[in-house]
# Entry
Amino acid sequence: MTDSSQITSSYPKKHLLAASGVLAALCLSLLIFPSAQVEAKRTTLPFGLEESSLSILDKLTENDALETEEVTTAAAPSPSQTEPAPPAKPTTLNLKAQKGDTLSTLFQRAGLSSNTLHQVLDSDPSARTRLTSIQLGQSFDFHLDEQGDLKSLHTRLSSLESIEVLRSGDTFQINHEKAAPTLREAYARGIITSSLAAAVSKASMPTSITHALAKAFEYDIDFGRNIRKGDEFEVIYEQKVVNGKVVGHGNILAARFTNSGKTYSVVRYSTSNGSSQYYNADGSSNRKAFNRNPIDSARISSRFNPNRRHPVLNKIRAHNGVDYAAPTGTPIKATGNGRVVLAGRKGGYGNTVIIQHGKSYRTLYAHMKGFAKGIRTGQQVKQGQVIGYVGSTGLSTGPHLHYEFQENGRHIDPMSKNLPVTETLSGKERQRFLKHTQPLLARMDRERSSMLAMNKR
Ligand SMILES: [Zn+2]
# Structure
């Protein structure tokens, strides 16, 4: 960009003084004269300028002359020059906010009065907050009319957001423009060498995807403890694009994560009634939901009841779960995917398994005769996996399973309607699901094999 101070410094000193003298006089007259007179005065200005410019231009090369012309018509004076050059015809001034600039100094640089500034700021309740916090380098396009009055002002707050101030009589109208980004699908693959965040950033994905990825697999993988070197992930996610430029990201549409040699897949799907969730790749079940019952077809012998008289203690004691009467040895199944946080004895509960599901949920299974093979604290379990067998250990009157469900540490009735219960896609919905999600999974396969082929070379 042309810097007027650099150009003027190459002028002979005498001319420089003459030129700035003219400028100063012009500006002074603008400040002093009331608008009607200024109008008259301004129409005569270009001639004066042309005259004095000509005498300077005589001694300049053609190239310099061109640049000088830009200075006198369009370019903003540098901040070292205190007096702005008045525009002589409808013009656009593009000013970039520099250190120390305020809306007020920018208006001054555009040759606009503080009166105009206040008209703009008072025009709309939102104007002050939207216009006065200025970023370094923020660009302002001032469109001025023949009289040098503000016609409109346009400034960009981000690649998505801009503000337009339009004159409407004696006041101004503020238009807040937010560009709607278009979405495109992007593929990325990463291998963990130190942390998930590092691998995400190495795969040129936005770091905020890390959180979304952990969320999508929260019921399968313990991202806090069980991420291993060599774990691998693939993601198809939405990129937000404005004018060919990536400005952000949307949802993860499909992802695969191989954790300690075990591969998990999720796909995002919006059902025909509009709810969006992650599903298993086969669409059979929603991972973020629970099976209603930990035992198949068992009779409920005691319901959730905050004021129950305890059958053994004979005292009023909240019954924080549901009891299932079943013969000793009946298999008990985990109602959701999660991590075993306890498999052992727990006071009156006897042999107990507690499973943590994602961040918010816990399930508890008590009075077990024994634990299923491989069920230990710290172990990852799948929905429907057998974790133990019905018994009567702890404070119990006979063989039954006592089952509790907690959300954020609060007991809730496992039979309540609010429980996130498994919804299996079937029939037409399942057909629709497969039609939407299979191309995503196929793309992951394609991208992965072409990436691996490239790495081999
Ligand atoms: Zn119970």
About this structure: The chain has four domains: 1-74, 89-179, 180-289+427-457, 299-412. The radius of gyration is 36 Å.
